[in-house]
């Protein structure tokens, strides 16, 4: 809805499509010249259906694309590769290579032998674990300016207060509020037998979770295969079991990790997960005992979705995702009775699930289900007396919202829908008015954002006072793509295991239009339990590293997280600020070097532009850097390229950031005598750059582009049918023009459509010839020539150590 509002406000000739709806709409969508993909990090999975549909649309229509994201990568640099691959073909020559990685493994020969890929492609960068290489690649495509960077370089100090502000064209000012970490402490004492939460946070509970065999997630394991003679599985049984084998290890890891995360989120959510898990186990045991097939959930892309169960005291149907209605169960007999009921209900909706013959599995599966259930009952027994009134964390939250901030808008974040619904029920029970809860289950989360933050969403006239929300409880469904800056107080009820999400959450309210001087970012932390939390996280981190089966979640676990738990506990200033100097894109970084230089010496603004081309200098450099020359050239296609050449004329690096840092010096640093071979090195560098540029893209552009495909099809027809009546002068001239000049946009649309329709060569030729005769085929300059410029040497700097 936010984008629909922008479309209306700026009168854009555009169409807005939800990422969840691309499969239904994008394949038949007409051509748009520009595609903007918001939250593009959601397209990290190259194997996904959505990904392939978006990529196909961009290739088919030769659309320009802008990817918007605050978190370009999460798990690994491969996330960057996936997003770039949406518009860069796998074999496209980038003109750069992962120099750091190639150097570390012993040079280009070793690289080629090890990987069998061209060093100038995305596939080559996929091999590199070094940030320097990825920074060099992203310099070609990334524009990123962090909040700190903008605050430092683009703001002005207030004359009275000294606070920094942005100045807009209408004269208005946007001040930068301070993001202040605040802690909310609640009592946590593992020795206190009355502390219901502490009883769950013991080594015994952690060990029980670690010991779970989780057989439902490992149905494809060999130990569960029924090898008894006389049983012959069907082809469908074999296929489903193969898919289970591929998905099982990841699902086991996801399930175990999820239990740890829920334990830290809320004792109630944790117990609810244990109870659900038990019920699923009993359903499978019931099916096994009665030789009935297992319902295993729909399978997509080699993964298996677990069953979803709901409470049958409600009117909901099985398969409908309303787990908020589920109630805790503690009695074994009740689980057995409920499992039978669930199985009968699920059987009436067979098309909702995949089914697999339980006779495929040995008794060991049944035994492991039984053993796990005993462990789960032990855990559940520790929390059987759970009551919200004794939930000290919940009490601290309610006090904060009803006493300290009783009149303020408050945004409460939690990782799990179960915790969100639990909090909502308790707020309603305490008669805290104007409270609402939004999770991924809600069809329209944006509607809640509008009711919570009507001013920033320009909805003041549409949202009545009675319908406005004061306290909004949300999962991370609202941590992306929403304007919530009517509020300046964020409560993190639990800490996400990828702590960078705390910064994303703060960014929901710290946006243009925020009027508060401070953004208060509360985190709930136990008084005496912070060390236990850190200990648990360390334990799980080690387990993740040691045991590959536990990697089952699309998150960073601790590594690279910008926030330290102890810094949160100590309310350290600045922990919610975003980004370092290395996070900035190259263009912005270079521009700020220039801005800082002319602020110190305004005369440089006149001196530098008037320097002649080919100007050079030499400086002394650190002994760890090789003797050589830094070269700045402008290519025939008006691209600026920096290169660092050694004295033999070989390129040491093309990393633009590294070269900028090598060139850095103070204004009063003296120039020294140039290298004897300086100009020869520069010449070698220009020749190398010319060769690189000549290989990038090619005369006809990308192989999957309409110009390349049209030329190849026409050329093949002419060569293969020299005596055909269709091989006319007009066809030959059209083919020559396509080779020399780019196609018009309208011609691209028409030809792309005909490629899709698979028309005959002769009909295709007619269309091309007619377009040419109507002057609608190629963009031909008036004088008929495309003037190609020679590359320029702007300047160079020698390095002597």
Q: Tell me about the biggest sheet?
A: 6 strands, parallel
3D shape: globular
- Beta-strand residue fraction: 5-15%
| Classification by helices and strands | alpha/beta
Radius of gyration: 32 Å
Low-pLDDT regions? 299-323, 543-563
Q: Give the spatial strand order of the biggest sheet.
A: 6-15-14-11-13-12
* Mean model confidence by pLDDT: 81
By DSSP, the count of extended strands is 20
Head-to-tail CA distance between termini: 59 Å
Helix segment tally: 28
Helix content: 40-55%
Report on this model:
The protein is of the alpha/beta class and 801 residues long. It contains 28 helices and 20 strands. The longest helix has 31 residues, at 235-265. The radius of gyration is 32 Å and the shape is globular. Residues 299-323 and 543-563 have low confidence and may be disordered.
Summarize the entry for a quick read.
With 801 residues, the protein is of the alpha/beta class.
Fold topology:
Layout: H1 2-9, H2 22-25, E1 34-38, H3 49-61, E2 64-68, H4 78-84, H5 99-105, H6 108-115, H7 122-125, H8 131-138, H9 147-153, E3 156-157, E4 164-167, E5 173-175, E6 178-186, H10 203-211, H11 235-265, H12 267-289, E7 294-295, E8 299-300, E9 303-304, H13 332-347, E10 355-356, H14 363-382, H15 392-404, E11 410-413, H16 417-429, E12 435-438, H17 445-452, E13 471-474, E14 489-492, H18 500-509, E15 518-526, H19 530-546, H20 565-569, H21 586-600, H22 604-607, E16 615-620, E17 628-634, E18 640-646, E19 651-653, H23 656-663, H24 678-695, H25 706-720, H26 729-740, H27 745-757, H28 761-773, E20 792-800
Parallel strand pairs: 1-2, 6-15, 11-13, 11-14, 12-13, 14-15, 16-20
Antiparallel strand pairs: 3-4, 4-5, 7-10, 8-9, 17-18, 17-20, 18-19
Helix pairs in contact: 10-14, 11-12, 12-13, 12-14, 25-26
């Amino acid at each position: 809805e936010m984008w629909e509002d922008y479309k209306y406000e700026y009168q854009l000739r555009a169409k807005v499509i939800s990422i969840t709806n691309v499969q239904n709409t994008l394949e038949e969508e007409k051509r748009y010249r520009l595609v903007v993909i918001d939250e593009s990090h959601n397209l990290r999975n190259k194997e996904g259906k959505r990904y392939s549909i978006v990529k196909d649309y961009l290739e088919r229509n030769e659309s320009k694309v802008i990817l918007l994201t605050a978190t370009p990568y999460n798990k690994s640099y491969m996330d960057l590769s996936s997003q770039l691959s949406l518009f860069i073909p796998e074999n496209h020559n980038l003109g750069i290579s992962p120099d750091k990685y190639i150097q570390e493994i012993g040079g280009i020969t070793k690289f080629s032998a090890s990987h069998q890929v061209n060093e100038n492609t995305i596939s080559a960068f996929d091999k590199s674990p070094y940030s320097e290489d990825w920074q060099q690649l992203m310099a070609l495509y990334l524009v990123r300016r962090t909040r700190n960077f903008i605050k430092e370089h683009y703001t002005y100090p207030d004359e009275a207060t000294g606070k920094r502000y942005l100045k807009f064209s209408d004269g208005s000012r946007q001040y930068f509020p301070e993001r202040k970490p605040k802690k909310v402490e609640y009592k946590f004492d593992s020795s206190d037998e009355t502390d219901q939460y502490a009883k769950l946070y013991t080594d015994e509970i952690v060990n029980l979770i670690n010991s779970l065999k989780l057989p439902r997630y490992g149905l494809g394991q060999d130990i569960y295969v029924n090898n008894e003679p006389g049983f012959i599985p069907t082809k469908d049984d074999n296929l489903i079991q193969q898919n289970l084998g591929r998905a099982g290890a990841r699902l086991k890891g996801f399930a175990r990790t999820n239990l740890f995360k829920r334990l830290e989120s809320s004792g109630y959510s944790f117990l609810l997960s244990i109870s659900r898990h038990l019920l699923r186990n009993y359903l499978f045991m019931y099916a096994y005992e009665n030789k009935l097939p297992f319902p295993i959930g729909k399978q997509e892309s080699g993964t298996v979705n677990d069953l979803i169960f709901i409470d049958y005291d409600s009117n909901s149907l099985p398969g409908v995702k309303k787990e908020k209605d589920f109630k805790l169960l503690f009695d074994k007999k009740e689980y057995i009775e409920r499992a039978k009921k669930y199985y009968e209900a699920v059987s009436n909706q067979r098309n909702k699930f995949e089914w697999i013959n339980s006779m495929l599995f040995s008794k060991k599966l049944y035994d492991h289900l039984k053993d796990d259930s005993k462990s789960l009952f032990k855990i559940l027994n520790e929390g059987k007396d759970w009551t919200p009134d004794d939930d000290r964390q919940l009490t601290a939250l309610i006090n904060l919202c009803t006493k300290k901030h009783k009149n303020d808008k408050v945004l409460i974040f939690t990782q799990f829908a179960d915790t969100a619904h639990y909090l909502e029920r308790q707020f309603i029970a305490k008669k805290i008015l104007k409270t609402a809860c939004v999770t991924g289950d809600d069809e329209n989360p944006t509607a809640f954002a509008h009711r919570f933050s009507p001013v920033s969403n320009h909805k003041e006239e549409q949202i009545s006072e009675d319908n406005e929300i004061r306290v909004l409880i949300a999962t991370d469904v609202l941590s992306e793509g929403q304007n919530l800056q009517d509020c300046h107080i964020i409560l993190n009820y639990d800490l996400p295991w990828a702590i960078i999400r705390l910064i994303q959450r703060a960014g929901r309210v710290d946006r243009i239009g925020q009027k508060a001087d401070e953004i208060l970012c509360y985190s709930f932390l136990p008084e005496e339990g912070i060390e236990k939390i850190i200990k648990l996280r360390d334990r799980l981190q080690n387990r993740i590293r040691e045991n590959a089966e536990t990697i089952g979640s699309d998150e960073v676990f601790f590594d690279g997280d910008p926030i330290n738990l102890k810094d949160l506990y100590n309310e350290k200033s600045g922990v919610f600020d975003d980004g370092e100097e290395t996070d900035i894109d190259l263009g912005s970084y270079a521009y700020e070097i220039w801005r800082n230089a002319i602020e110190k010496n305004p005369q440089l603004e006149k001196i530098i532009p008037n320097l002649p081309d080919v100007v050079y200098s030499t400086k002394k450099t650190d002994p760890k850097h090789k003797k050589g020359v830094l070269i700045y050239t402008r290519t025939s296609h008006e691209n600026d390229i920096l290169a660092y050449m050694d004295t033999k004329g070989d390129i040491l690096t093309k990393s633009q950031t590294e070269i900028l840092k090598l060139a850095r010096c103070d204004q009063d640093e003296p120039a020294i005598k140039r290298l004897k071979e300086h100009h020869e090195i520069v010449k070698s560098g220009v020749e190398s750059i010319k060769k690189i540029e000549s290989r990038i893209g090619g005369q006809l552009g990308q192989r999957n582009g309409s110009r390349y495909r049209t030329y190849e099809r026409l050329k093949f027809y002419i060569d293969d049918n020299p005596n055909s009546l269709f091989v006319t002068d007009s066809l030959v001239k059209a083919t020559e023009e396509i080779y020399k000049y780019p196609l018009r946009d309208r011609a691209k649309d028409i030809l792309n459509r005909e490629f899709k329709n698979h028309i005959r060569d002769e009909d295709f030729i007619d269309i091309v010839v007619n377009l040419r005769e109507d002057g609608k085929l190629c963009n031909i300059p008036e004088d008929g020539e495309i003037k190609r410029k020679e590359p320029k040497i702007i300047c160079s700097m020698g390095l002597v150590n």
